[in-house]
Amino acid sequence: MNKEIYELAIHFRPFELEEKVKELIEKGYDPNDILETLREALKYSYQMYLKGVYALPHLSAMVATFHMGYAVLKGRVKPSISKGRILMGTLGSIHYIGKDIIKCFYISEGFDVIDLGENLMAVDFIKGIEKYQPHVVAISIFLLNALGELEKLVKYLEENNLRRKIKVIIGGAAANEAIARKYRVDGWGKDPDSAIKLLYNVMKEVEKDD
Amino acid sequence: MTEMTGLERALTYLKGQRPDKMPLWHDSMYVPWQYSGVSSLREYVHNPEAIARGYSRYIEKSRMDITGVYLDQWALYEVLGAEVEILDHVVQPKTPPWRYRPDRKIYERFWKVDNFDKFDPRLGKRANALFKAWRILIDKYGDKILFRQGIPGPAATLALVVGTPEVLRDIMIFPGLLDELREILLGPLMDWTVEVAVMLVEAVDYQNFNMSFVTYDKSFLDIELRKWLVEIDREFLKRVRDRIGWNVPITTHVCSYDPDLDFIFQNFGDMVNEIQFYAPGSTYPLALAVEKFGDKIPLCAGIDHLGTLFTGTPQEVEEMVKKSIEIGKKAKTFALGPGCGLVMGTPEENIKLLADIRDKYGRYD
Predict the structure, then answer these.
(1) Which of B219, B281, B306 sits opposite A55 (nearest CB)?
(2) Which residues on A lie below 8 Å from B95 (Cβ)?
(3) What's the rounded mean pLDDT across residues B210-232?
(4) Best of A58, A68, A93, A94 to disrupt the B interface by mutation (most B CBs within 10 Å)?
(5) Does B220 touch chain A if contact means CB atoms closer than 8 Å?
(6) What is the dihedral of CA A72, A78, A79, A81, to 10 degrees?
(7) A63 to chain B nearest CA, in Å?
(8) Per-residue H/E/C for chain A
(9) What pLDDT sits at residue B85?
(10) Chain A residue with minimal CA distance to B255?
């Protein structure tokens, strides 16, 4: 773990951190070690969140810091243990903060995460599935206006016999158990902790080709 | 007791008394749009007649006592630079460049907004349509039901213009920003927001002012930031009260998932006429709220709009509302309501059922 990077991260100093990461990379520092450091900082922030000391502003700042550091590292690090490939995105709206928080956790847990972004419809997820062949599709739902698109996506997976190979999980402000049941998805997470546990659980059920 | 009008019922409740039966509140942006006969959301949000038509049908079908007429949350802020994109199913803010790279300069614009002639919200196209729709609906229903009407305080206003996640992030990463924002929020943006608040109260013929406390959520802001915000929001409410007087009730909106109701009551209970919040559905049980505040302030809750109302059968909806009414009857006065606006796709039969169930179980006499 790199102490300087860790200190900059836990004090939410993204600009300085970005410069430091560039400097370290130029000097030949191991990018995987920097990612591991960012992971530790993320975990620290989340522990503080669980204790009620931190709230959304801290997590938002942590995510921005993580992202700015990870942007320099991306392409230089590979997930050390490929635990699974996760396709993520926000269904039908611009909301991103919850999705980005969970994304950082999934990356830091060592999953291979592909973020399709926001404002996604079923067709966008389907294109993503065809291109990346994920094990899990993790969908953030903040508004329910586009839930018909979730139905379309699940139907596509069912009709193409992909439900055993690809699990679908949901999260976000408008996700709940009733919606998970109604739309036949494999689970829902209400916070980072449950989202991580849920991912590990559904990964056990994925029928893998590879 | 003789049958009251919805407006009488709502005002009796807001005075802390029991009306003939529990008032029923709900509102929605998207359900009235679906009733408006205009399929394009882009056209709808700029058409006051269509907005008024959609809400008229929604009111007639649903028989609620309290509603609210609105479009997206950013309509009043177009004039401050809040840009939206209008898709087929949603109006939402455009992704700003500062989402990807924080930029402290974005807050400078707020120093100038007290020039009200230049920043009159009615100069915005959607806001202009809204003001016209309000007039049509108040003329038609203003003596029958209560229209909740309001604007969040200056802090929430700033967050909606710039982007809430970005403001939350920026106050952590830019040293000194919080102090600068305090000056803006107690200065020019306070002046602007109070002016708009009074304008909105006038638009509903002084029926009420609605104040949002959605940010007082334990997962949203830590306790220090919640305390910091109290100074801003109390000053805002004080200045609104100075302008509208104490005879105009202040209704509230707390559509959070982890609301700090104790904190809200402790800090604002003396300034508002009710506490509306989300239960069942949030982390704060309705029974606990009734036990703690039910003898002190009117409470509005009882409908899980994202769960049972959206996905449940009519029987499940009846069960939920009946149970909420039983709990609510232990309060000195109680209104039925969801946590937030009803979402697109909520079954019409479930919505219509709410008034029937209230009539069946929610009478006080």
Answers:
(1) B219
(2) 94, 118
(3) 94
(4) A94
(5) yes
(6) -150
(7) 9
(8) CCHHHHHHHHCCCHHHHHHHHHHHHHCCCCHHHHHHHHHHHHHHHHHHHHCCCCCHHHHHHHHHHHHHHHHHHECCECCCCCCCEEEEEEECCCCCHHHHHHHHHHHHCCCEEEECCCCECHHHHHHHHHHHCCCEEEEECCCCCCHHHHHHHHHHHHHCCCCCCCEEEEECCCCCHHHHHHCCCCEEECCHHHHHHHHHHHHHHCCCCC
(9) 94
(10) A173
Predicted pLDDT at A80: 54
Q: What is the pLDDT of residues A73-110, one digit of tens each?
A: 988 887 655 689 999 999 999 899 899 999 998 988 88
For the residues B196-215, what does the mean pLDDT come to? 97
CATH number for the segment(s) A85-205 = 3.40.50.280
A17: pLDDT strictly greater than 70: yes
* Cβ contact, residue pair B102, A64, below 8 Å: yes
CA–CA separation, B263 vs A174, rounded Å? 25
Domains of chain B, residue spans: 6-361
Rounded to a whole number of angstroms, the distance from the CA of B256 to the nearest CA of chain A is 10
- What is the dihedral sign for C-alpha B268, B270, B273, B276? positive
Measured CA to CA, the distance from residue B64 to residue A33 in angstroms comes to 60
Q: Report residue B188's pLDDT band, with 50, 70 and 90 as the boundaries.
A: very high
Q: Which of B95, B220, B222 sits opposite A94 (nearest CB)?
A: B95
Chain B residues with CB inside 8 Å of A65's CB? 173
Residues A170, A186: Cα–Cα separation, whole Å: 8
Pick the CATH number of B6-361 from 3.40.50.300, 3.20.20.210, 3.30.230.30, 3.40.190.170: 3.20.20.210
Chain A partners within 8 Å of B257 (Cβ): 173
Q: Do B222 and A58 touch (CB under 8 A)?
A: yes
**Distance separating alpha carbons of residues A203 and A206, to the nearest angstrom:** 5
Contact B225 A55 (CB under 8 A): yes
- Would strands B91-93 and B84-86 be described as parallel, antiparallel, or unpaired? antiparallel
A3-73 to CATH, choices 1.10.3470, 1.10.1240, 2.30.30, 1.50.10 = 1.10.1240
Interchain proximity A57–B225, CB inside 8 Å? yes
Complex ipTM: 0.87
Q: Which H or E element spans position B68?
A: strand B66-68
B159 interface with A at CB cutoff 8 Å? no
Of A179-193, B12-26, B42-56, B58-72, the one with minimum mean pLDDT is A179-193
Cβ-defined contact of A174 to B308 (cutoff 8 Å): no
Query: Where do the structural domains in chain A lie, given as residue ranges?
Result: 3-73, 85-205
Cβ of B364 under 8 Å from any chain A Cβ? no
**Rounded (5°) CA angle B59-B62-B68:** 45
Subunit contact A14:B173, Cβ cutoff 8 A? yes
